[in-house]
Request: fold
Amino acid sequence: MIIKRLAVFVAALFLFACSDEPSITADSQEAASDAKAVLAQASASDGKALYIACQACHGPKGQGNRALNAPSLVNQSPWYLKRQMLAFMEGRRGAHPEDTFGQQMAAIAKTLPDQAAVDALVAYIDSLSGHTPERTVKGDTKKGEDYYTMVCGSCHGPKAEGNELLDSPALAGVDDWYLVRQFELFRKGIRGADDKYGRQMVMMAPALPTDEDVTNVVSYIQSLAEK
Ligand code: HEC
Ligand code: HEC
Reply:
């Protein structure tokens, strides 16, 4: 009986490990090369024209596309989007060999001509209307609320709306599956090791030691977006 259970457990672990393996699909490879072609031609001051390079992955309204691992961008603050774009361009994010999706985004950011193009893009994204992301992570929202209030809210704000003075982005309204993955990257030191902002999160990540804790907190953050 115990052996049988153990076998089921091992098989489940194996399946989990396989499905968890990050990989870039043929679809997203195609989107990436299309994006680079668009960026090579668009005027650096026209955010709308530049955004055509982004929409194959992030969606025409910035709503994200989970199948391509690209998060929604619309509920995020402009100052944070700008900082991330610069981090990708300057190799502070998406440079780690295990950061598969970050590397993909960094390759695209590096084809942007200059900071003016980033400003134009961010202003255009800010003009798109917000949306409530689909719930994909289900945890114990009440337990998550306790943790969130104790550990995360001091920087990310009581409603996870973000706090620019503390360099902390909004979390409410960001795709829940993306938050889980980013937290995992911080915990493993794959994101944030070479970046003074990201390093704060690398230091914070051990505050949620188990995957269940992360699921609970993210589930609470998602509930804030639905209000
Ligand atoms: C080929 C697909 C693809 C294209 C095209 C693309 N992105 Fe991304 N982008 C991604 C992926 C995948 C991620 C998630 C990276 C990660 O998991 O760390 C991402 C992440 C981001 C982030 C970080 C968001 C956050 O909350 O941390 C920003 C900002 C961003 N992209 C902006 C853009 C802009 C602007 C463009 C157009 C110039 C663009 N992207 C084009 C795939 C793409
Ligand atoms: C000391 C302040 C601080 C605390 C406390 C903190 N964070 Fe952060 N967090 C940050 C900063 C700063 C960033 C931006 C990192 C960057 O620019 O790459 C961030 C980024 C994030 C991101 C990435 C968001 C995105 O769109 O890419 C997630 C997810 C996150 N934090 C979750 C949490 C959770 C969950 C907690 C509570 C366990 C928490 N944070 C506690 C400062 C903090």
